[in-house]
Amino acid sequence: MTKILVTGGLGQIGSELTAALKNQYGKDQVVTCDLAELSQVHQEFHPYEKGDVLNAKQFQDILKKHQITEIYHLAAILSAVGEQKPQHCWKVNIDGLYNVLEASIECGVKKVVCPSSIAVFGPETPQIKTPQETILLPKTMYGLTKVAGELLCDYYVSKFNLDVRGLRYPGLISYKTLPGGGTTDYAVEIFYAALKGEKYTCFLKPDTVLPMMYMPDAVRGTIELAETSFKDLKHHSNFNFASMSFSCQELADEIKKHIPNFQIEYVPDHRQQIAETWPQSIDDCTARKEWNWKPQYDLKAMVKDMLHNLKQKT
Ligand code: NAD
Ligand code: SER
Prior knowledge:
The structure is a single chain. The protein is built from 11 helices and 14 strands. The protein is of the alpha/beta class. The strands form 4 sheets. Strands 3-2-1-4-5-7 form a 6-stranded parallel β-sheet, sandwiched between helices. Strands 6-8-12 form a 3-stranded parallel β-sheet. A 3-stranded mixed β-sheet has the order 9-11-13. The longest helix has 21 residues, at 86-106. The mean pLDDT is 98. It binds nicotinamide-adenine-dinucleotide (NAD) and serine (SER).
């Protein structure tokens, strides 16, 4: 029987992926793991294990205790925090991943899903419709841990026959849990300011275009990839994955259609430099071909749904 562990399960993606997996496989079949104390964790995330992926022994004990068969490994440090704390970013994203992969072999885990990111690309990469196979020369610590992570995952596929899969998420937009310190966080923060009637100070320039995706598409796509038959996959840990691209100004203009008084100012900070090394749009034809990926939300539909759901929440 499938028994799933979601590391980083309280984060922006984990909090929504865990719920979707529980719907699909049953509440008790999905164990959430993160750094918080059990007493601070809402019941919806139970069964819950406090666990640090840097503690290999503790992590193996969790896998054995729950007889885990599949792991969604989401525990990571994102781009902006990663530039503030590069050593910690390397440790969590590389040593943590290594521990997860080694423990998977040791404990007989059948499948590991581990996200990568558009941060694997760099200024030398073609910025428009970035192809699947291209130059991977990132300039951030986060990006280079993601390139090494993809290579490490593919090594475990070929060397140890471990089923590992991953996709290069674009910036993800969601209303349940705030993002954890990335360069694309502006595209979530902007909605909170707009609904509070506050002027939003954007940390990127108005014409900065980045690839983005709405969380329902990201969660559905992740589960679809996980459920594809292994023999149908030629790629494993590095699928380009896309739905929409827009500039900060275009997002603000779309929000203004719903909240005409919304105001925005632009005060670019260190994250602008990171954004400028990333692509503007992604060619995801390989994901479409190998596991039938197809997004459902565009900018207009995403903004409407975000505002509707955030209004109910706040
Ligand atoms: P997040 O920062 O919201 O959540 C990460 C979680 O990991 C947090 O809850 C944190 O407490 C936990 N964590 C950190 N260090 C840990 C450790 N040592 N042991 C156990 N848990 C630890 O991140 P997210 O946005 O949910 O990202 C999940 C994955 O998706 C990451 O691999 C990230 O690189 C990737 N990704 C995210 C985005 C995005 O826009 N959110 C885009 C591209 C890729
Ligand atoms: N949203 C992520 C970040 O900005 C991309 O990996 O770090």
